[in-house]
Fold each of these.
Amino acid sequence: MPVQLTALLSTDSAPTQWPEGLSNSMSESGLASYEIKESITQYSEESFALFGSRNNLIAEIYEMSEECAKENWDGYGAVPISITTIWNTESFIRLLPVSISLPEIAPEPDGSISLDWIPGRYRTFSLSIGESNQLAYAWLEGSERGHGVARFDFQVIPGRILKE
Amino acid sequence: MGLLASGLTEYVSDDESLARFLNSSRLFNASGQVKHAALLPRNGETSVFRYPVDAAINSEKELWETGEKFCPREDSFME
């Protein structure tokens, strides 16, 4: 679930429920200080949740790759997932904007890793990451569909992919 | 219509069904649905079992036996 981080430090609005021991007789500076502390706490908790889930996904990639490290891991001659593919996928995930939900992952028979966003039956986006810097992607939205290949420089997510 | 080396017809007919045995739980999502990566071709090809829809062989038990014979692995899943 996307988390809005930008508004967390705002002190424009007063808390609607006062914690025990506090009242609305607090001075203006005390109120601002309280709100900032609250915001920082909330920010810290949400940051932990956010990067925690990202780290969990990366850990899942390593686990999956271990299971798919041998030739023919699927019984149909699949190529093992290489360490380069793992690193490329990890780089991509770490660069994903926080506003984008994390994808599901799956191993592909050619040794690539598939990143899938499937918000609905008729709305999906799938991206394939392998050893090269070429990212093959495909999307479906209602009756419209498309696919393409974008170059990944390991510094930023290709704009074409973010746009899709 | 040509025949394959197996003796089956080149194209899958309407009275046939397809099965593929999956050896990795990673090919299923949390709700148990198969991910598309499970059926992706490699070098333009993917392998499936073909079986007649209405024949006696169309039993889950026999399908499992076939899968265990040709794709042996303890944690196989059939879709």
Note: Residues 16-78 of chain B form one domain.
Amino acid sequence: MSGREQRLAELREHVPQVAPEEAYRLAQGSATLLDVRDPEEWAAGSPRGAVRLGRSFLELKVEDAIPGMHDPVLVLCASGSRSLFAAESLLQLGYQDVRSVAGGYAAWKRAGLPSEHPRMLSAQERNRYARQMRIPEIGEQGQEKLLASRVLLVGAGALGSPAALYLAAAGVGTLGIVDADTVELSNLQRQILHTTERVGMPKTESAWQTLNALNPSIQINTHQLRLDSANAEEVVRGYDLVIDGTDNFPARYLLNDVCLKLKLPYVYGSIYRFEGQVSVFWPTAAPTGAPTPCYRCLYPAPAPPELAPSCAEAGVLGVLPGVIGTLQAVEALKLLLQLGETLIGRLLCYDATTATFREFKTTADPQCPYCSKLEAFPGYIDYDAFCRDAQVA
Amino acid sequence: MSAEVTVRIPEALRQFAGGSRELRIAASSIEELMTGTAAAGYGALVNHICARDGQLRPFVNLYVGDASIRALDGLRTNLKTGDVVTILPSIAGG
């Protein structure tokens, strides 16, 4: 018997083994299925939902990927040999319940158990995203999730600029940019997607050029139009979330409503001179507690124009939307990666003059005509009229 | 005896508060706070927070600490000394 065969025989003696069917059943509960094969093997298929961590970095990275030492870990390789070595390493690291999946992925496939073909990162992508992939909560699987994600930015202006730049840099795979305007010289003090030489160019085209130069590997869809009741669903459908970079009330109420209808998160941000507000509205998320509000619960009706002048009328500190738009990008990444605590149920307010952040609770209005009865969407309205008719009476 | 509370004025409404960032008003409820604010010479500010029927306008929120009075007792929400009431109007810039 060769040394290798002898060692494998010893490992089989003291590493528990589990049949693929039983491993699948356990993985539906608290057990983690850990695929320790090489990336090129994963590309040809891997158990659905498995944590993928190659054998070469296993001991160094496994505690970040699987922090619970007491939960079951089911180790899988191609045929059930490498997983025995890997399982023994995990036992030595202190994992209490480690089992090797007998027959490996070959047996998993033969049993007809569910697989997936993860999008594998190229060497260039690994290099580009190395710093954020090093964060345990993101890792390679988080990066793959971002690359498969689709975010719609409505407005390529002051808020949309920083949000789009950071999301493109982070490798969000598809970005949609909605804007009907052209670049003006007075935009450039804060709308950092655009440049002096592009004055007169559609903002969507200018945004495409900047974002493509920053990260040519992502898909950038341009929608040169003004979102309205007639086109909103068609434009928004297919994206995973919407970032509000608009500058007017009709667009904000429309975005709230279309996101409710399509059950998407709405990442809200708005600014006035030195002050900004950020929140996330997603009452249609899978319920985990009390209902959460929509934008209409926070502000049932818009302010009359004399109380809510635009940036053109009231002025704005150019850096302010940089802060608020960047916070919107952070919220978007957290939603896509399903990590941390988002601003759902909270309104974050920033005052640049005092360098103060304040947080306020937002609560669902049980009488809200739009989100209190999620299955009975009341329909779109004439948003311009709704906002134009707002009165201080 | 009424409590003295601090009222934080947002940038958008500061023109109706003589340019002040904060006002200190004696009041034991939000209702009293509105009356006291008007009596202190800031009637225009109150007009932008409450409609003629006295109800909170739908584009303004009042927070006591971090809680909206809409989720508390509305205008009847009680106040105590040291409370901070923040006015947060809807803004649309972007």
Note: Chain B touches chain A through 27 residues (CB under 8 Å).
